[in-house]
Specification:
Strand order of the largest sheet: 1-5-4-2-3
Radius of gyration: 15 Å
Strand content: 15-25%
Low-confidence stretches: 1-36
Amino acid sequence: MPPTTRRLAAGPCTGAVLAALVLAGCGTAPEVSATTPTDDYLQVIVGSSDSTDVETFSLSCDGRAEGSHPDPQAACDHLHGMADPFAPLPTDVACTEQYGGPQTASVTGRWAGERVDVDLSRTDGCRIAQWDSLVPLVPAA
């Protein structure tokens, strides 16, 4: 069975993260293949729609917590405690029209044996709640 991919709809700030990567000279994130030796490996790119500052870090939670994440143990413990941390947002709910800030993030890799490819932002109530549920993987706003 081929690996599944979870991809959330890109928010209006997603392009800003990609543009910031180019401006910062970071290029694109390497693709994590099915042959990557870990099932719980993530790369997180955090930016802002109003800045070119971009931070990239890795997190491996397969066996022991490690990587360039600022607090790998806290992030791994939090993610392991969630039933489905990268579940897509439901399409049949109304989200409050509120702006939570310019923060954007992209999370790619593998989690629990499944591919992860999620774009995060704080552009409405649903996306704010999604972001907040993933702290400390992503920084608190």
